[in-house]
Amino acid sequence: MSAHSHVDGKLPHEPEKATLEGRNKVTGFWLFLGGETVLFGTLFSMFLALRHQVGDGNPTSQELFQLPTVAAATFILLVSSLTSVFAIQAMHTNKVKAMINWLIITIVLGLGFLGLEIYEFTEYVHEGHKFSTSAFSTSFYTLVGFHGAHVAFGVLWIGLLIAQIFKKGLTVVTAPKIYVAGMYWHFIDVVWVFIFTVVYLMGKVG
């Protein structure tokens, strides 16, 4: 039986788990996310250790952070997590067009988040908060920038998967890839909630 054909011409309810390869992909990805968690944990530890190391005359987190901008970015990313859930639900009910639409909306929201982050970083640099200004600025840009790079990668990845769906259709081979991309997107959302709390809210409170 080929990847495309099923008895009733439809995919099983959870196509990402229909094949051993699909299940292995999902399991392997959980292990990858474990490694990513350790990596982000290290960056968080570094930031917490260095966040008060601000040089004389350099802006502090209380002076710098613009919570309305960051709150807007947070809202956008949380909504994108929801749209990725809708995409997976559409996949499970074999609604390919709806799935693609939800994935496109997820990408657009991800780009919106990145746009706000680039705007925010530009503002900080104008304020004299450059990468090498202080230990605080270096640890800040490393942690937040590393997360931003993950968002950019996620946007690119989902974009490539949409192209693959247009070409090959939704099959037991392409479904696990969509599912795993959804897991990845949730992961970077959860990491951002921690960044928002630890970096921005605690930074504002001091």
Automatic annotation (TrEMBL):
The superkingdom listed in its UniProt entry is: Bacteria
Output the Pfam families linked to this UniProt entry: COX3
* Localization: Cell membrane
Q: Which UniProt keywords apply?
A: Cell membrane, Membrane, Transmembrane, Transmembrane helix
Start and end residues of each Heme-copper oxidase subunit III family profile domain: 28-204
Q: Which residues cross the membrane?
A: 29-50, 70-88, 100-119, 139-166, 178-202
| SUPFAM superfamilies reported in the protein's UniProt record | Cytochrome c oxidase subunit III-like
What the entry lists under InterPro entries is as follows: Cyt_c/ubiquinol_Oxase_su3, Cyt_c_oxidase-like_su3, Cyt_c_oxidase_su3-like_sf, Cyt_c_oxidase_su3_a-hlx, Ubiquinol_oxase_su3_dom
The record, for Gene3D superfamilies, names: Cytochrome c oxidase, subunit III, four-helix bundle
Membrane topology, from the record: Multi-pass membrane protein
The Swiss-Prot or TrEMBL record describes its family as follows: Belongs to the cytochrome c oxidase subunit 3 family.
Its recorded name reads Cytochrome (Ubi)quinol oxidase subunit III
Q: Which organism is it from?
A: Paenibacillus sepulcri
